[in-house]
Amino acid sequence: MTMNEAHEHTPRLPEHTARMDWAKLAPEAFKALARLDSAAGRGVDAGLLHLVKVRASQINHCAFCLDMHSKDAMAAGESAERVIQLGAWTEAKHFYTAREIATIELTEAITVVTHGFVPDEVYARAAAQFDETELAHLIAAIVAINAFNRIGVSTRMVPGHHTPSA
Q1: Which one, of 160, 158, 149, lies nearest residue 16 by Cα?
Q2: How far apart are CA 68 and CA 63, in angstroms?
Q3: pTM listed for this prediction
């Protein structure tokens, strides 16, 4: 029996129930956040956006967003290997470009502001890879996914049901 066959025959734990349907209950807030996400994304390479969304979702433990953005990244052509290695990127830098590493570092610094600021050296590495307009959009994209992550974990959105669009 293969591992997949064993998993198919082993009952899974039940899904948790979402606390609320935030987008339905606060549609104008949802639309505003979606507009921010869309506007920010127009100034950032789509591949970088996938890395931002997956990495922030990993850090924030947002299973719903992690499910969605990992599937979307792979549907857009990102390799499973690079998505998997993203959680341990500091030990797997050879999977990424200098521009991608600067993006991942900036994502982490903005997502985890434990010292109340983004370190100058992290910002400088990002600024060396992007022009000011790109960097402004990148920062906005990181802020947007962090907002979505916080909504996802607060309302306990249920992962596992996202199907990427073609």
Answers
A1: 158
A2: 8
A3: 0.92
Torsion of CA 130, 132, 136, 141, to 10 degrees: -20
Amino acid identity, residue 132?
A: E
| Secondary structure class of 133 (helix, strand, coil) | helix
The superfamily (CATH) of domain 34-155 is: AhpD-like (1.20.1290.10)
Closest residue by Cα to residue 64 from 150, 166, 135, 165: 150
Q: How many angstroms separate the CA atoms of 78 and 145, rounded?
A: 19
Q: Which residues, given as ranges, of the chain have pLDDT below 50?
A: none
| Phi, psi values for residue 57, rounded to 5° | -65, -35
Q: What region does 116 belong to: left with phi over 0, alpha with psi -120 to 50, or beta?
A: left
* DSSP symbols for 54-71: HHHHHHTT-HHHHHHHHH
Say what the pLDDT of residue 1 is. 64
